Amino acid sequence: MAGKILIKIHDRGVVSVCDSDLLGKTLDEGDLHLEVSEKFFKGEERTEEYIIGILKCTGNATIVGKHSIELAVKNEIVEEKCVKKIGDVPFAYVFAI
Predict the structure, then answer these.
(1) Do 31 and 66 contact (CB within 8 A), yes or no?
(2) Residues of the chain whose pLDDT is less than 50?
(3) Are the C-beta atoms of 8 and 40 separated by less than 8 Å?
(4) For the chain, what is the largest distance between any 2 Cα atoms, rounded to a whole number of angstroms?
(5) Are the C-beta atoms of 11 and 50 separated by less than 8 Å?
(6) Domain 5-95 listed as CATH 3.40.190.10
(7) Chain centroid to CA 51: how far?
(8) Would you give the DSSP letter of residue 4?
(9) Enclosing H/E stretch for 38
(10) Which residues make Cβ contacts (< 8 Å) with residue 92, sequence separation at least 6?
(11) Which pLDDT score is estimated for 2?
């Protein structure tokens, strides 16, 4: 899989995952707005195995970017039907119920 993926683990088990090339960008389309802020998304580049292990254990995650979403869908973290797009950038939220 091409592209670097960053992961950040926040307090209370919240996890953010994004493609590194989206860091610092703001995505807008119609009523949709998503800021890929460094404060929330700037984490560490880690292996796919590490990222999947964390995502499988967390109750809340925000995942942004083609490579990040492909990884999450491939490993059944996110269902394809739950992925939204702003422009050509896919994103998804994971919430424990």
Answers:
(1) no
(2) 1
(3) yes
(4) 35
(5) no
(6) no
(7) 10
(8) -
(9) helix 38-41
(10) 62, 63, 69, 72, 78, 82, 83, 84
(11) 55
- Residue 88 CA to residue 65 CA, distance in Å, equals 9
- How far from the centroid of its chain's Cα atoms is residue 36's Cα? 10
Q: What is the dihedral of CA 49, 60, 73, 70, to 10 degrees?
A: -70
Global pTM reads 0.93
For residue 74, the model assigns a pLDDT of: 97
As given in the structure block, the two tokens for residue 33 are 């707005």
For the chain, the structural domain boundaries read: 5-95
Locate 95 and state its tokens. Answer: 């919430």
Task: Specify the residue for token string 């973290």.
Answer: 77
Q: Is 94 helix (H, G, I), strand (E, B) or coil?
A: strand
Q: Which of 68, 60, 71 lies closest to 36 in space, CA to CA?
A: 68
